[in-house]
Design a protein that fits this description.
Elements: H1 3-13, H2 32-42, H3 46-53, H4 61-73, H5 77-90, H6 95-107, H7 112-120, H8 122-125, H9 129-141, H10 145-158, H11 163-175, H12 179-192, H13 197-207, H14 212-225, H15 230-242, H16 246-259, H17 264-276, H18 280-293, H19 299-310, H20 314-327, H21 332-345, H22 348-361, H23 366-378, E1 382-386, E2 389-393, H24 398-420, E3 428-433, H25 436-444, E4 454-456, E5 460-464, H26 476-492, H27 499-513, H28 522-531, H29 540-543, H30 550-580, H31 586-594, H32 598-620, H33 634-643, H34 648-660, H35 664-677, H36 687-697, H37 701-714, H38 719-731, H39 737-750, H40 755-767, H41 771-783, H42 789-802, H43 806-819, H44 824-835
Parallel strand pairs: 2-3, 3-5
Antiparallel strand pairs: 1-2, 4-5
Helix pairs in contact: 1-23, 2-3, 2-4, 3-4, 4-5, 4-6, 5-6, 6-7, 6-9, 7-9, 9-10, 10-11, 11-12, 11-13, 12-13, 13-14, 14-15, 15-16, 15-17, 16-17, 17-18, 17-19, 19-20, 20-21, 21-22, 22-23, 23-25, 24-26, 24-41, 26-27, 27-30, 28-32, 30-31, 33-34, 34-35, 35-36, 36-37, 37-38, 38-39, 39-40, ...
Length: 839
């Protein structure tokens, strides 16, 4: 993909934006019976549609079109065609002609294009907004998106309050993945008519990635208006399938088929469910049934491929998408889907070929455009190959990151491969992005994914680099370890592990590897336990679909894994993963492995949670009246605190009040009691943070160092505290590597682009005669462009010299002297190297 072509595409995409409204000829108001028929159709009263339309001239194409749409909604395609053909023959640009063209296109009939092209001419020849909108629908069906957008713009300007026009425009935006403007259009449709079912469903589809619960609520609202809405039922079925509630999904599909037994989308989704349930014969039968209705309906395989990908089965998604293309080789959506799926399997050359072919056919697809633009930037990345590992990093970050990421990735895979007794299939591709939106696009094709840090597709891992977010926002090493945990669990389960388990294992393996990587949610979880708001195990998988509960789902997932290991050992967990490879659902897999289900597991899990969190939960309980403490006098607060010595919130409230009044020593005592109650409390307002601030305010250096040390020990992402601690240790003459090394290691782990931390760690490594570790740290310093480059090159030279690498040592020493010819440390080192002196 050339830069020029992408630039042209950017200009082309500019058409897909909402304009301000202008003026145009006012539309003719439809007759009352026609309005009644439209209302009945919108609300699913299909018999009433026919009754209302029968009050019109029987030759009126608009009335015939509405009767046909009611028939199509119930799957009576032949009857609809029989109604529409005579009317379309008489009026080739009428509503009836449009509906006939759309029906023929849906069924894959050859005359669809000619019919639609005649209707599309209205966009250029008519001044009536409703007719222009009719032309826009035909243009969209023909794939002439720029013209369709222009027609919708004109129609909307002339009739801004028409919900059908706004909905049609929103559907065009949504098809091109312009969700922002799609949602605006649907909202404007609903402002005009809050009961307009297609706009409710369109808004649900627009929000399904960003806010699934809200999207589900909109779809349910659509069903309240129109209980016969097949689109709403199928949307809910898709959401249920994504949450692993396949029985619920099938129930919704059955409801859709009860309305329209010939619904192509319903049959396709039912077949997709059969596929992910490993019911191969049922899948093939469902696909065949769908293709019997519409022989070239490639979406039957695209739907299965999409659901397979949602279930981590990316190789199979590729195969299914290729089957779609075998039916319709020019299907630009299938080509785009193939590109996405090939990216997920690591076939980036194949993905580019497919995406470019899709772009050529459809230069207005935001997703395709984003992916190609991202791949252009990815082409500039540095690629490092080490055995079965392939790491791709931005050229500015690679000199530093590769020093740590390669070794860490090998360590993670080796550790977890041994623990789970499974060797993953490679090569394993890891791509680390300094721009979060590039990571998001690499993952889903669109920017966003604000809460995500990394994603694993089985053999491909994508993630944010430390520079993608401010230092202290996350620990990139933990993210890499987490995603490589998925490599093990996805492959070991034959890509059939449920999300609650694969995420729970990866979370658990993080803290198993390094305690400082654990998710900092202990206090929050203790509070949820007190309020009865912890997740039930049966709801765990679905909780990953809700932005409000996803963090809790990750955390509780790790607790469930801890419970399984406590009760059944690592061997039990390994057996469970292998059991899922048989295609069983959660209850069946638990039954086969442990002879229990989630309901029976709940009581044992609750006991484990109480044992682990009971003391903290009780400490976090808020006694009655504590909310009023801040309004009390300090004397009254002391009385309340004395009566509640084991209440963390009470002691913290007292400490803050005393500090505000300047009673610092008493405040420290209160914060100390709080810290003793909940030793793991972290954050800027934690007890140790408060006590460190007071010590600094009092210039009590020893106490400040002690409190900062304690704070860094529990607040693992707090790089400000770590840097402050390192500075104070230096200022106070502390030189003991045992005291300094942990702090600098924390700084370098959170922000690997901190040259001062790497310099310190390199010198500590030299002191303990670990020359290789020192060389790694000093290479990172040089890659970061230090202020004192001569000193940095000399540090690296000394590490090489200590390792016996005289040639490398000499090269780096000469580099230092080229920068600073009179630098004595480099001169002395060169004499040792050339003279053959001792190391």
């Amino acid at each position: 993909m050339s830069r020029t072509s992408l630039s042209l595409l950017g200009a082309a995409l500019a058409f897909l934006v909402l304009p301000s409204y202008g003026t145009a000829q006012a539309p003719r108001r439809p007759a009352a019976p026609l309005q009644a028929a439209v209302r009945a159709l919108n609300e699913g009263h299909y018999d009433d549609v026919e009754a209302a339309a029968d009050k019109l001239d029987p030759r009126d194409p608009a009335g015939i079109a509405l009767k046909a749409r009611a028939a199509i909604a119930r799957g009576r395609y032949d009857a609809a065609e029989a109604m529409l053909r005579p009317a379309a023959a008489r009026a080739g640009q009428s509503d009836a002609a449009l509906e006939l063209g759309l029906l023929q296109k849906m069924l894959g009939r050859g005359d669809a294009t000619a019919i639609l092209e005649k209707v599309a001419m209205l966009a250029d020849t008519s001044n009536d907004p409703l007719e222009v909108a009719r032309g826009a629908r035909a243009l969209r069906a023909l794939g002439r998106f720029e013209e369709a957008n222009a027609a919708y713009r004109e129609a909307s300007a002339g009739f801004p309050s028409d919900p059908a026009i706004q909905t049609g425009w929103g559907e065009l935006f949504l098809e091109k993945f312009n969700r922002t403007d799609a949602l605006k259009s649907f909202q404007m449709a609903l402002q005009a008519d809050a009961r307009w079912t297609p706009a409710l469903v369109g808004a649900a589809r627009t929000l399904e990635e960003e806010n699934p619960p809200q999207a589900v609520g909109l779809a349910k609202r659509a069903l309240e208006v129109n209980p016969s809405s097949v689109d709403a039922q199928l949307f809910l079925a898709g959401e249920a399938a994504d949450a692993g509630h396949n029985d619920e999904a099938r129930e919704a599909i059955d409801k859709a088929l009860a309305v329209n037994a010939s619904s192509l989308d319903a049959h396709a989704l039912g077949a997709a469910l059969a596929f992910v349930e490993d019911k191969t014969q049922e899948f093939e039968a469902g696909a065949a049934k769908t293709l019997a209705i519409a022989p070239n309906y490639a979406d039957v395989y695209l739907a299965a491929g999409e659901l397979a990908a949602h279930n981590y089965r990316f190789d199979e998604a590729v195969q299914l998408t290729r089957r779609a293309l075998a039916l319709d080789s020019k299907n630009y959506r299938a080509l785009a889907d193939l590109g996405v799926q090939l990216l997920r399997t690591g076939d980036e050359p194949g993905a580019r070929t497919a995406l470019e072919a899709s772009f050529k056919a459809d230069p207005y697809n935001t997703l395709t455009y984003n992916l190609l633009q991202m791949m252009d930037r990815l082409d500039q990345f540095v690629t490092v190959r080490d055995g079965d590992l392939i790491l791709r990093m931005h050229k500015d970050e690679a000199p530093v990151l590769q020093e740590y990421a390669v070794a860490l990735a090998h360590q993670a895979l080796n550790t977890m491969s041994a623990r789970y007794e499974f060797a993953p299939r490679g090569p394993i591709l890891i791509e680390i992005f300094p721009r979060h939106d590039d990571f998001a696009v690499r993952t889903l094709g669109l920017p966003g994914m604000i809460g995500a840090l990394g994603v694993c597709f089985g053999r491909v891992v994508t993630m944010d680099s430390p520079k993608a977010r401010p230092p202290g926002d996350f620990q990139w090493e933990a993210t890499l370890w987490h995603e490589l945990g998925h490599v093990i669990t996805l492959q070991m389960s034959n890509q059939r592990v449920p999300r609650w388990l694969t995420e729970g294992i990866s979370e658990y393996e993080e803290q198993r590897a390094r305690p400082e990587w654990r998710r900092d949610m202990d206090l929050m979880f203790a509070g949820l336990l007190n309020r009865g708001e912890a997740l039930k195990l049966k709801d765990l998988n679905a909780a990953f679909q809700d932005p409000k509960t996803i963090s809790l789902a990750y955390y509780e997932g790790s607790l469930v894994v801890e419970h399984i290991i406590t009760e059944y050992g690592q061997a039990g967990l390994n057996k469970l993963l292998r059991t899922f490879s048989q295609g069983l659902d959660t209850d069946a897999a638990l039954k086969a492995t442990f002879n229990l289900d989630f309901v029976r597991m709940q009581s044992g899990f609750d006991q484990m949670v109480e044992k682990k969190f009971g003391a903290m939960r009780r400490a976090m309980a808020v006694p009655p009246g504590v909310d009023e403490m801040m309004k009390m006098s300090s004397a009254a607060m002391k009385t309340v605190a004395g009566a509640n010595p084991n209440s963390f919130p009470v002691q913290m409230a007292l400490g803050r009040a005393l500090r505000k009044e300047g009673q610092l020593d008493e405040a420290v005592q209160a914060f100390g009691r709080a810290a003793a109650l909940v030793p793991t409390a972290a954050g800027r307002d934690s007890p140790h943070a408060e006590m460190a601030a007071i010590a600094l305010e009092k210039k009590d250096t020893a106490r400040a160092i002690a409190e900062l040390t304690a704070l860094v020990g529990v607040d693992f992402n707090n790089i400000e505290a770590a840097r402050k601690l390192a500075g104070m240790l230096r200022e106070n003459g502390v030189e003991d590597p045992a005291k300094l090394t942990p702090t600098y290691e924390r700084i370098a782990a959170i922000d690997p682009f901190d040259p001062e931390a790497h310099t310190a760690l390199g010198r500590f490594a030299l002191q303990r005669n670990d020359a290789d570790a020192a060389s790694r740290e000093f290479r990172a310093v040089i890659a970061l462009g230090p202020v004192d480059r001569a000193a940095a090159y000399t540090d690296l030279a000394e590490s090489y010299f200590k390792a016996g690498k005289r040639a490398e040592a000499k090269k780096q020493t000469l580099a230092a002297l080229e920068i600073a010819p009179n630098y004595e440390r480099a001169q002395d080192l060169l004499l040792k190297i050339v003279g053959g002196g001792d190391k």
